[in-house]
Design goal:
GO terms for molecular function: protein serine/threonine phosphatase activity. It holds the Pfam family PP2C. InterPro entries: PP2C, PPM-type-like_dom_sf, PPM-type_phosphatase-like_dom. By secondary structure, the chain is an alpha+beta fold. The protein has a single domain, classed as PPM-type phosphatase domain (Phosphatase 2c, domain 1). Helix content is 35%, strand content 23%. A hairpin with a 2-residue loop joins strand 11 and strand 12. The longest helix is centred in the first third of the chain and has 22 residues. It is globular, with a radius of gyration of 22 Å.
Length: 397
């Protein structure tokens, strides 16, 4: 019943909304919009300012040599906003400029390698900015007093920003769509990119164009173990050093630099970490960094070769993955399973005319009906109850 107060499985109170209020409220909370040909939603319903979304996205059309290139990105920040705010600010321009140069150069374009290199170089620059504050490396840092370190890194300006960008992190998912419908996808972390294609016979097919970079992924865990032989706890409880779930990201230099940078620099930073006790738990395992990688995995598809009658692209942060698993009761950390469900939902015949496709998918993964969606939208809590969730939907054919 509309207006009824209920309690969810965790005992938190929520309000059941009438359909009109629910549709309007969800669109408002999700900041539903259409940018060019791309439908967008990005939601964190918790009203507490400190819990505001750490997701970021970019949708842009670039006119280069009289041809249109489409750029899209979903960035999922964690531990704070500093890294994701930096990446969303500088990454698009760096990629645009690199693409302009590459297209003006004779020879074939390797857009995938361009994306991989730009993202890795950006991460390296974040780390190098910190290292440059302490010339001489770890050995020299040992001889700097805590007072000197604190004064240098907590200047409230440029130096503070450099340190905080290393302390926080973000995943990176980028799609570059060329004028001939070539799609290059670079994935760093656990956001997902899915291509839905409809065959001439009317069947929908799913192609996952991203990788699942977390410690629960067998290939990622094996890669890290092979890079750190003899370190049994480099992957512990499906987490890197028993601490962080993702295995590739920008920032997160606690897992990329020797531990002295954490004990002498990061733990002297103001603001610092929310949970410094957890750092003490994993820090003794930091023996041969780096443990996190900034090397993106690249996939490429030339859409015309698919012979499809209908094609769309979805980029989503892992909040949508979490919602999908909760709603559909599936092993939602398996990208092919999750992606197939999204394509199934978006390929429904009754979706036509429903407006923003990203909003349609979001509502479906939140449960669809008024009670289920209300139970995720109107919780009376000052702490977040769902992960930040961002979805970009683009119809290509």
């Amino acid at each position: 019943m509309s207006g009824e107060k209920k309690q969810n499985a965790e005992g938190a109170t929520y309000t059941v909304l009438a359909e009109h209020d629910l549709a309007a409220g969800l669109a408002r909370h999700a900041q539903a919009q259409t940018i060019g040909t791309t439908d967008v939603v990005s939601i964190q319903p918790c009203p507490t300012p400190a819990e505001r979304s750490q997701d970021r996205f970019v949708v842009a059309d670039w006119l280069i040599s009289d041809q249109t290139w489409r750029f899209q990105a979903v960035l999922d920040g964690h531990a704070g906003h500093e890294t994701v705010d930096h990446v969303v600010t500088v990454l698009p321009d760096i990629i645009h400029n690199a693409l302009v140069v590459a297209l003006a150069t004779e020879g074939p374009l390797d857009a995938g390698e361009l994306l991989r290199k730009v993202i890795a170089d950006l991460d390296e620059r974040i780390g190098q900015d910190l290292l440059d504050l302490f010339p001489g490396g770890p050995g020299a840092l040992e001889n700097v007093s805590d007072d000197e370190v604190t004064a240098l890194i907590n200047d409230g300006g440029v130096n503070s920003a450099k340190v905080l960008r290393c302390m926080r992190g973000c995943t990176v998912l980028v799609a570059l769509i060329g004028p001939d419908l070539d799609i290059w996808v670079a994935s760093l972390g656990d956001c997902q990119c899915v291509l839905g294609t409809k065959t001439p016979s009317g069947e929908w097919e799913t192609r996952v164009l991203s990788s699942n970079h977390n410690g629960a992924d067998a290939s990622e865990a094996a890669r890290i173990r092979s890079e750190h032989p003899g370190e049994d706890e480099c992957i512990l409880n499906d987490r890197v050093l028993g601490s962080i779930a993702i295995t590739r990201a920008a920032g997160d230099f606690l897992f990329k630099l020797p531990s002295i940078y954490t004990t002498r620099v990061f733990l002297n930073s103001n603001p610092g970490f929310r949970f410094s006790s957890k750092i003490a738990d994993f820090l003794p395992r930091n023996l041969t960094p780096p443990y996190l990688s900034a090397q993106s995995e690249i996939q490429h598809v030339h859409v015309p070769l698919l012979g499809a009658t209908d094609v769309f692209l979805v980029l989503a942060s892992d909040g949508l993955v979490d919602l999908s698993g909760d709603t559909y009761g599936m092993d939602h950390r398996e990208p092919a399973v999750c992606g197939k469900k999204w394509v199934e939902v978006l390929g429904r015949e009754d979706r036509a005319g429903t407006g923003n496709a990203a909003l349609y998918l979001l509502r479906n993964t939140m449960g669809g009906d008024a009670d289920k969606v209300s139970s995720l939208l109107t919780v009376e809590s000052e702490e977040r109850w769902i992960d930040d969730t961002t979805v970009l939907f683009t119809k290509l054919v």
